[in-house]
Amino acid sequence: MNSPILQLLVLAGIAIFLILRLKSVLGTRDGFESPAQRGQAASNSRRQDFEVIDGGPDHDITDHVAEDSEAAAALAEMKRAEPSFNVTEFLQGARGAYEMILMAFERGKLDDVTPFLSEDVYETFAQVVDDRQEKGLTIEAEFTGVREVTLSDARFDPSSKRAEITMKFVGELSSVVRNKDNEIIEGKPGQTKRQKDVWTFERVMGADDPNWRLVATAE
Predict the structure, then answer these.
(1) Which pLDDT belongs to residue 19?
(2) Which residues contact 209 (CB under 8 A, 6 or more apart)?
């Protein structure tokens, strides 16, 4: 067999091999698929991807409140208004803010936490601190830790984008109150007590100011 014929047979064999290989990798399509059918298939694929990514529950919300609650709906609205908002991260920040604000109040150093207090809350705290100073009372306090942090409620006003989140805290601290003669009139050194508080934080979602402010307190 001469060389040209041999070359043609080799090339034909290679071509057949490549065709079979491509069919095994890419598969085959039977019949005619109209542009509308192709578009529908692409749409179904996108919808499936969307359902996988966005269709399920947002665990960042449902890990903290009931899925069908008004609080969950409010938190979802907050996320739509400010996509970078994260509920879990907020709870971590609220935990730190609770310790910082509580100890500033106990020690009478409210200037350290002014950016995190609404005007009404600041005035209420300041009045208590001023009363203690007028009576010559001083407080020695040490924070032991936060035993419980619970998100109890959330509200969102779409028109103003104002968000409110109410938290329940159970903290543990030691506190000793001394009079002007340095005598202990309340508490014992080293003895811890539990403090329960319900605090509401507020912020306008999407605003340049990232700080949440304490706007209400209760026990």
Answers:
(1) 44
(2) 203
Q: Residue 92 belongs to what domain range?
A: 63-218
Nearest to 172 by CA among 152, 196, 154, 140: 196
Instruction: Enter the tokens of residue 194.
Output: 């539990």
> Tokens 């207090």 sit at which residue?
117
pLDDT in tens, 46-94: 333 333 335 678 999 999 999 999 999 999 999 999 999 999 999 999 9
Q: Is residue 27 part of a domain?
A: no
Q: How many domains does the chain have?
A: 2
The continuous run of DSSP H or E covering 34 comes out as none
CATH number of the domain that 94 lies in? 3.10.450.240
Task: For residues 132 and 53, give the distance between their C-alpha atoms in angstroms, rounded to a whole number.
Answer: 55
User: Residue 12: helix, strand or coil by DSSP?
Assistant: helix
